[in-house]
Design brief:
single chain; alpha+beta; Ubiquitin-like (UB roll); five-stranded mixed beta sheet; two-stranded antiparallel ribbon; 7 strands; 14% helix; binds FE2/S2 (inorganic) cluster
């Protein structure tokens, strides 16, 4: 049996469960996962709106390259949700263009 087959059979072990707050709503997260992953698991696809046209944006690359997942995390705007680990009680806001313009296009 290959290593991949062993991992698939064993399954995924999640860390301890806790709550985070996204736009005031409680969402479950697990130790070791990113805020982006917790939001996707909760069915939340919109993480920010574009500056110019207010188009919704969500997780795209998931590896810190595209900048589409910028949110306000614990009061810090333009924080990448895909690169930030969820921590118990952390406060996350959907980033609105009016509040946190970066000067970046889109
Ligand atoms: S999803 Fe691309 S940088 Fe986070």
């Amino acid at each position: 049996m290959s290593m991949v087959e062993k991992r698939v059979q064993k399954g995924v072990e999640r860390g301890q469960q806790f709550e985070i707050f996204v736009d005031g709503e409680k969402i479950l997260a697990y130790e070791g996962e990113t805020i982006g992953a917790a939001l996707m698991a909760a069915g939340r696809r919109t993480l920010r709106y574009t500056n110019k046209y207010k188009h919704p944006r969500g997780l795209y690359c998931g590896i810190g390259l595209c900048q589409e997942c910028r949110m306000v995390i614990n009061g810090v705007p333009n924080t990448q949700a895909c690169q930030t680990l969820a921590t118990p009680g952390c406060q996350v806001e959907t980033q609105q263009r009016e509040k946190y313009s970066t000067g970046l296009t889109g």
